[in-house]
Write a structure and sequence with these properties.
It is a single chain. By secondary structure, this protein is an all-alpha fold. A two-stranded antiparallel sheet has the order 1-2. Helix 8 packs parallel to helix 10. The protein is globular, with a radius of gyration of 23 Å. The N and C termini lie far apart (about 60 Å).
């Protein structure tokens, strides 16, 4: 057992356990990255449930289950014949990235507000992703539609693409319903929209997805240069 300063290294022990399972468990041996994805999705959802509704013990357990998924993927990757990497490579890459993105912690930069921290983070990220040509690069379309909508609205603001104004920004008559003033009220408003969709035979998920595809097209159009359009 690996030890750090006289104490067992629990993370190393977990990685070693994963390696042993991969070596000796016939079910685990036949799993690849793609086959593991449904389990990753399931464990992520269970962790969210634990964060929002569970006990401390459940949170600890679900964090462990998600960590197992990371170790599993890393162990599969370590045996790739062409481009292997292991959990140590993953950890080193993560550490290097977090140090770069926190120059106010590990360097001479100064950040006294969350907004200033975000400026440093975005600057470091932009330098790392300099090969990207669109603000949409790196945005996963597999995100839940509401989360994707929130993400794309933020991206649209970066390229000055107009998006529908929130209810709080619209001029309203006194007879109009006030905008939601809390997340709970927002949940009620969203549920009412879905209820309306169901009553009309509409697919709420599809409706939002189709609108988001249109927003993506608007963002990409705004990013094109005249030279791109002429070509």
């Amino acid at each position: 057992m690996t030890e750090i300063a006289g104490r067992p290294d629990a993370l190393r022990e977990a990685a070693d356990t994963m390696r042993a399972v991969r070596d000796r468990c016939v079910w685990t041996q036949q799993i690849d990255h793609r086959a593991l994805v449904p389990y990753l999705v399931e464990e992520s959802a269970e962790l969210i449930d634990a964060v929002e509704e569970g006990s401390r013990a459940e949170l600890r357990e679900e964090l462990g289950d998600l960590l197992w998924q990371v170790l599993f993927h890393a162990e599969i990757a370590s045996r790739d014949p062409d481009d292997p990497f292991d959990i140590d490579d993953v950890a080193r890459g993560l550490t290097d990235k977090m140090v770069r993105r926190h120059p106010h912690v590990f360097g001479d930069a100064v950040a006294t507000t969350p907004e200033e921290v975000l400026v440093h983070w975005n600057a470091a990220k932009a330098a790392e992703k300099s090969e990207r040509t669109s603000v949409l690069d790196g945005v996963s379309e597999r995100m839940p539609s509401l989360a994707l909508a929130q993400k794309l609205i933020g991206k649209a603001a970066q390229v000055d693409v107009p998006t529908p104004r929130s209810l709080s920004e619209e001029r309203r008559d006194e007879t109009k319903r006030a905008a939601p003033t809390s997340e709970a009220a927002l949940g009620d408003a969203l549920l009412k929209l879905v209820t309306t969709a169901r009553a009309n035979g509409w697919d709420a998920e599809r409706a939002l997805r189709e609108r988001l595809r249109k927003l993506e097209e608007e963002i990409r159009s705004a990013e094109r240069t005249p030279a791109d359009l002429e070509g």
